[in-house]
Every structure is written in C-alpha cells, then in structure tokens.
Amino acid sequence: MSAVFDARPCELGEGPLWHPARGQLFWFDILGRRLLTRSGEEPQEWHFSEMVSAAGWLDRDRLLIAAETRLFTFNLETGAQTDVVALEADDPETRSNDGRADPQGGFWIGTMAKTPRPGKGAIYRYFRGELRCIFPGIVIPNAIAFAPDGRTATFADSPTRTVWRVALDAEGWPTGSPEMYLQLPKDGPEPDGAVFDAEGRFWLAEWGASHVACYAPDGSRLETVPVAAPHTSCPALTPDGRLFVTSARQDMTAAALASAPLSGQTFAASVAARGIPEHRVRL
C-alpha cells in the first residue's frame, strides 16, 4: 500500500520526474500552473503564467518544461526561463499533457484540447532542434514510456482505453505502424501515465481505479499497488525501488472528495522493481 509523500493537493497532478542528478522528485499541477518538489522535508513550488505538464532534465539545475504554448528551459536555482520552441501556440484551445525524454535524448510531448475533443490532440517529438508531429488525431495522449532496450515506445489515447507500442529507429523516431499492447475493459479505468522498469515491466496509472498496475511484456497483469485516490495519473520509479504516484481531484463531486479526501496528493510506495534513470534531454 502506498503512503502520502506530499500532502499538497493538486487539481490535476501529473508528470512526476525523479531527477537522477539531484535525487529529487519534481511534479506538476497542470490546472494549478505549478511545478512542485520536496528538498528533504521542505516543500517548494514555482508558479507559471500558463499550464505546465511535463519535463525532462537537461543538467543538475535546468529542466525542459512543456507548457500550453511552448517548450522552455527552466533554471531551478534562478528561475530563469528560455523559450526553445512553440507548441501549438496558435491554438488557444489546446495544452500539453503527458511527456517524457527518450533514450536518444529527444523529448516526446502530447497535446490535447483543454476540454477533450476527438482528434484535437497529438504527440510530438523534439529532437536536435526539430519539433515533429509523430502521432496526430489523438484525444488524450498518455502513457508515453520507453522500454529499457531503447527500441520500443508506448503511448495511449486514454478514452479508447488502448495502450500502443511502436518500434524506434536508431535515432529514436517511430518506425512502422503501432501495435496494440494493452486493451483495458470498455467500462473500466482509463490508461494514464506510465513508466518501464529495468526488467521491461510496464507500470501504468489507471485513472479511476485507485492503483498503479504492473504488466509483463506480453500484456499480462502481474500486480497492482493500491493508492488512496481514485484518479491516479502518473508513476515515477527510482532505481532503488521507490514508486511515486501523482493523483487528481479534477471534476470530483463533494461526495466523491469526502469519500477519498487524499485525492490530488502525491504518494509513494516501495516495490520489488528497479527504475530506469530518466534519460537526459539533449538540446
């Protein structure tokens, strides 16, 4: 069973990143426009002028952050921001969502309508100065993750309850057609954020199910880690077996919040798995 790691409630917690150079967890409250962390027992947060959702690490002090309209670098020590590339900046209806760095140093980021609509979202990859749309026509992009051998990526379109996997070429670009990896039940939870462990098992936050599920490479379910919040949104896994999980309270009724008062908080558990250190983004 997981325990509360940080009690600050997020309206839509997302994008947990275990920074390997700092040994520190960072995560986002998308709707609250916040980046949060803890340094020892001390909570810290930064506020932004637009929604922020995911990040990759550049060096000890700088992150590449995905926001509503752009990718930008952010210095954790000084607060300095530098724009890198526009991200659907001409469309005020969309924002960024799930994202993660790939083994080749590229950064994958999904976009979606602020009020989800079919076909309004997409997944992009930023690599060596180029932002390229690689999967258009998505509603809610999630479960962006990379197998330990660096040859396969996963992604989901959450309302379809399908997680796809696709082969990657030597430079990390998708090659060939995606194939189905997981199909969750039609009336069940939706796939949200995900991460692989060092043995190739897939840890998936299942929105609406109060847990993170672990799947084998063949798609069979191995275990679940209970979380005291129904809307688990994304896991992060450290090399020493700590599983962190963000959650959300978005659109929950007063009655639902009363029955799950820890919703929106960030959780931690110990698991028998080794995380893959998050890959470094190379601009």
Radius of gyration, taken over Cα atoms and rounded to an integer in Å: 17 Å
Query: Sheet with the most strands?
Result: 4 strands, antiparallel
- Structural category: mainly beta
Shape call: globular
Q: Please report the total strand number as a whole number.
A: 24
Question: Mean pLDDT, rounded to whole units?
Answer: 97
Write down the secondary-structure element order: EEEEEEEEEEEEEEEEEEEEEEEHE
In whole angstroms, how far apart are the ends? 39 Å
What spatial order of strands do you see in the largest sheet? 1-24-23-22
Question: Helix tally?
Answer: 1
Low-confidence region ranges: none
Could you estimate the helical fraction of the residues in percent?
A: under 10%
Strand content: over 45%
Question: How would you describe what is shown here?
Answer:
The protein has 283 residues and is an all-beta fold. Helices cover 2% and strands 54% of the residues. It has one helix spanning 254-259, and strands at residues 3-6, 13-19, 24-29, 34-39, 42-47, 52-57, 62-67, 70-75, 81-86, 94-101, 107-113, 121-127, 130-138, 141-146, 152-157, 162-168, 174-183, 190-196, 202-207, 211-215, 221-226, 232-237, 242-247, 266-270. The protein has a 4-stranded antiparallel beta sheet with strand order 1-24-23-22, with no helix packed on it. A 4-stranded antiparallel beta sheet has the order 2-3-4-5, with no helix packed on it. It is globular and about 45 Å long.
